[in-house]
Amino acid sequence: MIVANKMYQGKSTEAIHAGETLQTSPTYRQKDQAGKTGTPLLPPIYQNSTFQFHNTEECASAFIDEASGYVYTRWGNPTQAILEQKLAVLEGGEAALAAASGMGAISTALLTALAEGGHVVAMETLYSATYNLLNDDLPRFGIETTFVDATDPNKVESAIRPDTKVIYLESPTNPLLKLVDLDACVEIAKTHNITSIIDNTFATPCSQQPVTLGIDVVLHSMTKYLSGNGAVIAGAIIGKKAFIEHAKKGALRNFGAAISPFNAWLTLLGIPTLPLRFARHCENAMRIATFLEAHPAVAWVRYPGLPSHPQHELAKRQMNGFGGMITIELKDGRVAGEKFVNQLEICSLAVSLGDVRTLVCHPASTTHSHVPTEVRQKTGITDGLVRFSIGLEDVEDIIADIEQALNKLPK
Ligand code: LCS
Fold it and tell me: Which band of pLDDT confidence, cut at 50, 70 and 90, is reported for residue 109?
């Protein structure tokens, strides 16, 4: 198995082979009703909610020692387990947990790390549902969050209180692509004995493996790059074995954000091509960001790979590939944003990201249209802001589509 074999450590080899031991195990190779055996090359799907026991002793021992057998799919399932082993290897963590959605993973991780009265220091610009969870829902359980500009590690440290239990980060952030200095935040968290958590959805383990730098808990919306197929909603937590066990037996089981075997299996079909896809996302995004920066209708471009990104040096130091997300501001504000996305032909107007298709959204007229203008401006969601999730189409075709749409904007 790849975890134990230090000879094979390439990302693609890991993405393809890690965790896939079940198929070759002697128990799996038992004969079928016709007396035949056969070893499936792909991870099998266990599409069942419960598991049967041959007698009460076997059932009782599965309850006492869960490692001895599966009981119920909300507690665990062999297809989920293969996915979890693969995720742990990819992120360089001790263990992993697959969840029903990115938000399922985020809430499970926070409910595991926090207790009543706990305090969180969080990055001020986060994925909107994460912000809402910290700002609206957790306060009802006596958990407060102080939001800071975590691009400055001093601001993270200054916000720490005696009751701070978690430092919560995203890097790059959604949608403004701000970065956090992971080494600096690890040092702060360790000095103050606080659990550090990062949402690594935008970077993927191909670009950065925060656990290997000392971050305690890594989260993913696997809906995005990890599955890559735009077919599932799924999430993941990677961290120390004790934290993952605690999450599995507590918040995951009791709040119920378990992944379905089918979605775990679809994600398992996506991960083997992640390194290949991610390299192409990065290559296409770099070409497109450079094109956008030179276009007269564009006020500014944020892409960690561009020298104009305020944290480009940090990006070079801590990222191995700058990702597929680009955010721009159009000169003519809201009207330009709406008109631009309406003119696109290959690129799709859609939320979500990390798909093989190029997805584009204009938050001011869509996802954030209900947010008052002053509030949007304060959080950086300006009127002409357009977010691209660059896909895997031929880059010349994506550029041609963006160019024809930009050229229709008023000069
Ligand atoms: N974390 C990040 C960074 C995200 O971008 C999202 C979803 C989530 C967590 C939540 O994951 P989910 O529960 O949807 O699997 N981001 C979305 C976005 O930017 N547009 O639509 C969803």
Answer: very high
